Structures are given as C-alpha cells and as structure tokens.
Amino acid sequence: MKNLFGVLKHVKGYWNYALLNIASNILSVVFSLFSLTMAIPFLDLLFQADENKYSTILAKGLEPFSFSARSALDHLNYYFTGLIVSQGKVRALVMICILVVVIFFFKNLFRYLSLYFIAPLRNGIVKDMRNSIYKKTMELPLSYYSNERKGDIMSRMTTDVQEIEWSILTGLEMIFRDPLNIFLSLVMLMLMSPKLTLFVLVLLPVTAGLIGIIGKSLKRSSSKAKESLGTLFSILEETLSGLRIIKGFNAEKQQEGKFLNENNIYTRLMIRTYRKIDLSSPVSEFAGSVIMMVVMYFGGMIVMNPDESLKPSEFITYLIIFSQIIPPAKSITAAYYNVQRGMASVERINKILQAEVSIKEAENALSIQSFGTAIEYKDVSFAYNRGDEGHALKNISLKISKGKTIALVGQSGSGKTTMADMLPRFYDTTNGDILIDGVSIKKIKIKDLRNLMGVVTQESILFNDTVFNNIAFGMNKINEEDVVAAAKVANAHEFILQMPNGYQTNVGDRGGKMSGGQRQRLSIARAVLKNPPILILDEATSALDTESERLVQDALNKLMKNRTSVVIAHRLSTIQHADEIIVLQKGEIVERGTHQHLLQQNGTYKRLYDLQTFV
C-alpha cells in the first residue's frame, strides 16, 4: 500500500479534476438508482386489477416523508396513482417512459463527464511520473548505471509507466466509482430489508478472500514478466548498438537465439499473468450468482411469510437493485487484479526514484566563477563499491598548477579515466579529497564546478540534432558567429559548410552521418565554445586515422592553449610536450616527470614508449 500511496501523491496537482470526477460519479449513481426504484412501484399500480385500490390510495392521503424505503415508496405510489387516475393508464405509461429516458440520459451524461474529468488526471499523473523518472536519471551518478542495464531502465520509463496508467489509474477510477455505487445500493437495500441485506453482507467477505489470494499470485507473476521485458529491451539495445560487430563476426544466429530464448520466457510469464487476470471475471460472476440465488431463496421465503412486511413489488425492486451491484463488484475485482499487476511496475519504478543519489551538493555550497591557482589531489583513494578490497585508485597525490598540461598514461584499467572523472564529481572519493584553489570540490556547487570544465572523450557524444545545436549544447543565447568561430578553431568549419544545410544539417543518431574525425572535431568545437579554464581530454584521438588525428590534434592544441589540461592518452606521441606525465599502474602513481626525464629513468614509461615505437 505504501507504493500505491506513492502513486497517489501525484494526484494533489489535479484535485479539481478528481473532485469533479467524484461528483459526476455520485450523480450518475443517484440517477441510476432513481430510475430503478421508480419503475417497479409504478408498474405494480399500472397493472393493478382492482380499480378501487386507486381511490383507496388517494383517499388515504400522504403521511409526512421520512427517510425510509417505505415512506419513499408510499409517496411514489400516491403520485403515480394520481397520474393514472387523471391521465389514464396509456398516457401515464407514455409519460413515465419519457421520464425514465430523461433519467437515463442524465445518468449517462454524468457517466461521460466522470470519464471526461478523469482523462487529464490520469494522463497528468503519468506525465509527472515520467518527468520524475527522467529528472532522477539526470541526478543519479554514473556509478549507478554501471550496475544497471540501459534497456531495463528504458523499459521502466516506458512500458512500466504505461502499465501504471492502464492498470492502477484505470483501477483507481473504478475503485472510486464502483464502491460508491455499491454503497448507495446497499443503503437502499438496507432501508428496504435490513434482515436480507445483513445476510448478504455476511457472504461478501468469502468472495473477497478468494479474490485476494489470486491477486497476490498475479502480482508475483507480473513482477517476473516486467523483469523479463527489461532484459528483452537490453538485448534489443545491445543489438542495435553493436549491429556492426554482430554482422562482422557472423553472430546473428547467436544473438537471435539469445533474444528468442528471453522472448519465450517473457511469453510464458505473460500467458500465466493473463490467465490469472482472466480468472477474475468468472470467479466474481460465479460468486455473485451464488449470492443472488441465496438472496432469491431467502427473500422469497420472507415474501411468502405473511408476518413479514416485504411486499412482492418491493422484493422485485430489491432484486433489480441487487443485480446492479454485481457489475460494479466485478469491476472492483478486475480493478483489484489490475492494481496488483500494476504494483509490480510501481516497485520497478521506485527502484529508480528511491535510488540513493551519492553525489550530493553540500548545504550552503560555495559558488565559484573562476579558477585561480591550482587543482590538488590529496591522498585520494577510490573503490567503485564501498567495502571492496580492490581500489581503482590508491593514495593519489598530485598538484596541477593553473595553465599546466598534465598527461595520464598507463595500461588499460590503471585508473586514468577514473582519476579524471573524479574532478567534475562524476564520482566522489572514497578516501582523501580533491581541492580547487584550496577548496574541497565537495563544498562547491556542482553546477559551478562543472562550468569550469570542458570534456572531450574518446567516443564523440553527439545528439540527433543540428550541427549548430550540438556545438551550442548546454549553452543559452548563443549566436551563429560564436558557433562558427568555435568550429574554425576546431578545424570543423570547412566540412560543415559542405554539408547539405550547413550548420542546420541534422547529424543523425549519435552523429552517424559523419566520420569519426568530423564527430570529434564537433566535440572539440563544443568545448571551444564553452571556453572553460579546465580541460579534460580522454583519449580524444585514439580512435582516428592518421589524417583525422592530425586535424584533431591541431584543434586540441589550439583548445589547450592558455588552459589547464588533464590529458589521458594511449598514443604517447601526442603528450610528449606535456608539463608533467603521470604514469599509473593498478591505481597507483609509479612514475612522474617530463617525457625526456621518464625516458631516462628506463622504467614503465620507457617500456610503453618502446612498444609503441616498435609498432
């Protein structure tokens, strides 16, 4: 129930629609009950064989109205009798038929209005949930995604949210409407025959218990199905991302087999889920019919007993009203099953919404607008999972003065990228601290900290948008002259002009319409336009051909001029002019110095350099 209340908290922004929906449902139920209760007594009088009874009813007059079924029926009998006597049976029948049609018109009008008002509430809640999930995905640290499948997260944001709309929110609409229908009907039945109604109420919990058992089983099956669907999304995402490798290694059958196997698992789970859902209607209908027959038996016994006050016409009315309880009872059963199925989706979504945001901004965080003197790593250690014995970084101490270029080199897995990622707080230190101008980066506003930095990675991250918007990404009120100037510095202006629409050309998904070198130069142009005092270059040329590398390296040299730079490089030829080279091995600094100094040491760096020179 706690998870259900988590969904309902989104209703607070739509109370006006909720209240209008409830009011419309109440009026719809009232008109429905009124149409049923007025027809039976009238027909009882209409087909009355004893004409003298009409005169007897009119001569008796009306007693003061009291809140009871007997008083209501007596008043209806009196008015209908007067109508028959004054207008005749045929004319009275026409008038009552018109009246019933009008009542049903208003019943269905308010039923439509209830749906009309619930539509913005349902879709508004779903919109808010999607917004909340997307916002949380932006807040969560990169470490969270290293333990999650992207396809599964996409599944939660799409199919699970949609499941909540069609299961829980549809069910909630029924839960608000149908219990009201049942309650008002039971009140009417209680007024008509308290003894018979109390007997009915004793039987209802038995049905509710059976439905509850099936509902819990349904929730378990639905949860497993959602997890399987998330795995399917992950396989599909991996397939689309790695299609070139799959085809290149003739692994289509292998990948297809993986997908088909998971799809079969998902299908079996969904068959099991739907069978349990489909069980709801037969169970509730059978239970309702049993109760109906019991009511008919005991009600008939009451009517045939001359000492009881329940008349045949009242018993017929009672049965008709009771029969109207069965459809909403079935709806509540279906709604309960839907809510149970949807709760599995709520739990999956809550795994994202309730995930801990480990990168938190300090209270009263400092605002900084510029970088003054130095960056300092003070005895920094880091483990991706706290409590791990193995650390990605161990006791790193390093000072980077303003304007200097520091290169990080080492074998794959030595901690180079991790060390750079800690500077903009993509990860936080496990032990030690990182300072900028003597202030811990944990005490600085995250937005201000990242405003000081520009990042160019090995994989060029471009978005399915225009060249202009990719270069100006994350910046507001940028004019075309500034974008063009940045592109020229990045050696990108010429190839952009050759594109069909120049700077307004769409680059495609992940920049798929351009070469690797062109994508990388757009990434550099983005960093140039941001004009940050600190640069992080993560193997920015390692995936390029010789000509593209020359153009990109030239652009990088322009970008790094008069800036503080942290450069991660596999190609040692690109960092020979760095002010200091830091050699990492298994998360520790094993050597440091200039290119010439490290060659003279004849150690790890010399061995790496000789290997690349030999190659």
Overview of this structure, please?
The chain has about 625 residues and is of the alpha/beta class. The chain has a domain at about 1-10 and about 115-355: ABC transporter transmembrane region fold. Helices cover about 65% and strands about 10% of the residues. The protein contains 22 helices and ten strands. It has helices at about 1-10, 15-45, 50-60, 70-85, 90-140, 140-145, 150-190, 195-240, 245-250, 250-280, 280-305, 310-325, 325-355, 415-420, 445-450, 465-470, 480-490, 495, 515-530, 545-560, 595-600, 605-615, and strands at about 375-380, 395-400, 405-410, 430-435, 440, 455, 535-540, 565-570, 580-585, 590-595. The strands form two sheets. Strands 6-7-8-3-9-10 form a six-stranded mixed sheet. A four-stranded antiparallel sheet has the order 2-1-4-5, with no helix packed on it. Strand 4 and strand 5 (about 440) form a beta hairpin. The longest helix is centred in the first third of the chain and has 51 residues, at about 90-140. It is elongated. The relative contact order is 0.08. The mean pLDDT is about 80.
